[in-house]
Amino acid sequence: MAIEAPLSKHKKNGLIIWMVVCIGAMVYCAYDGYFNDKFKTKHTNEDGTPDGTLAFNQKSPPYLIGAAVLLGAYRFAIRNKKLIADEKYLIFSDKEKIAYDTIEKIDKTYFKSKGRFVITYKEKNGKEVDRKITDRQYDNLEPVLDHLVAEIT
To answer: Residues with Cβ < 8 Å from 80, sequence gap 6 or more?
Structure first.
């Protein structure tokens, strides 16, 4: 029986908040840079060139919209991402799997207080790797951790 931990609502909502912030900043900068005559008069040099503030407000809107679009594309790309604990592997993605027999230890010291645990495992080349898994990345981690501990011991 596989146990799934979907991408956390914290991460999804955080991306939405940043998209809204980028769009809000774009609207603010576009208004001040192009439509607010009082602001444009205040931030224009004596020779008629815009100062740094006005230049920023006029040039930043396309970049802010681009950032919002990239954040939206990233959210769309990771919408179905999940952590799966099946019978033999801890699966992060199709390319990234950790076999239970390679896991050396699980440090769950801060799981109750901070929502994170660390898995130490050996890669194929013999190198030890620590992987931190937090509740800010995935929801439903407690059953996954319990399954991992049961499989390791």
So the answer is: 7
Residue 84 to residue 6: CA distance in whole angstroms? 8
User: For residue range 72-96, what is the model confidence (pLDDT) as tens digits?
Assistant: 999 999 999 999 999 999 999 989 9
pTM reported for the whole predicted model? 0.85
Q: Assess contact for 82 and 7: CB atoms under 8 A.
A: yes
Q: Residue 30 carries which side chain, given as an amino acid letter?
A: A
Q: How far is CA 18 from the centre of its chain?
A: 11
Where do runs of H (alpha helix) occur along the chain?
9-30, 37-42, 52-59, 61-77, 111-114, 141-152
Residue 134's CB is within 10 A of a number of other CB atoms, namely 17
Gap between the Cα atoms of 43 and 93, Å rounded: 51
